[in-house]
Amino acid sequence: MIIPVKPPGEGKLRLAEVLDGDARNRLVDAMLDQVLDAVSAARFVDRICILGPSRHGQSTAIPLLGDPGGGLNAALSQALAEADAGGASRVVFIAADLPRITPRDVEALTGAAEGVVAIASDRHGTGTNAIALPLPQAKGFTFAYGTDSFAAHDGEAYRLGLDIEIVSSPGLARDVDFPEDLRDAAKIWAVDE
Predict the structure, then answer these.
(1) Residue 135 above 60 pLDDT?
(2) Model-level pTM?
(3) What is the homologous superfamily of the domain 2-185 according to CATH?
(4) N or C, which end of the chain has less CB nearby within 10 Å?
(5) Helix (H, G, I), strand (E, B) or coil at 36
(6) Per-residue pLDDT at 191 exceeds 60
């Protein structure tokens, strides 16, 4: 399980019109806590890693995978290669901004059939909030986070000849990018914390 997260001060900049820097940092940390709690409680998870330059105050028991530079897609490609070299049979990449995620959501990704790519879109059906890649079948997978990543990742699985399972749930779909999304984080975070 690999959870990419931006460094402190760089996350959730699209919320700057409604949240100052300290509030955004607290929000990022609260959502990362929620994701880590769900992942830790889920079955079929052998290892959890944070991908980025900071643990955001998390335990040093959670490995921190360095970011080689070049953006998110390059970092994910390096992490995928490392997982494949380490003998992993499946690697799951999951967004750090999912305040409603549950262990059951995580298990829907980790429990995908052998050789199948499991993918969860955002609430709009355009972005990718989580993707589970079978190894070694997907070791050449090219990540395309950015505009319309869900369609791009679907196409990449097709290019590799891999079947796809679409995983739909509010916990995986409801990431926080815009002010109107903040209501999804209300149970784990408050502006005046």
Answers:
(1) yes
(2) 0.93
(3) Spore Coat Polysaccharide Biosynthesis Protein SpsA; Chain A (3.90.550.10)
(4) C
(5) helix
(6) no
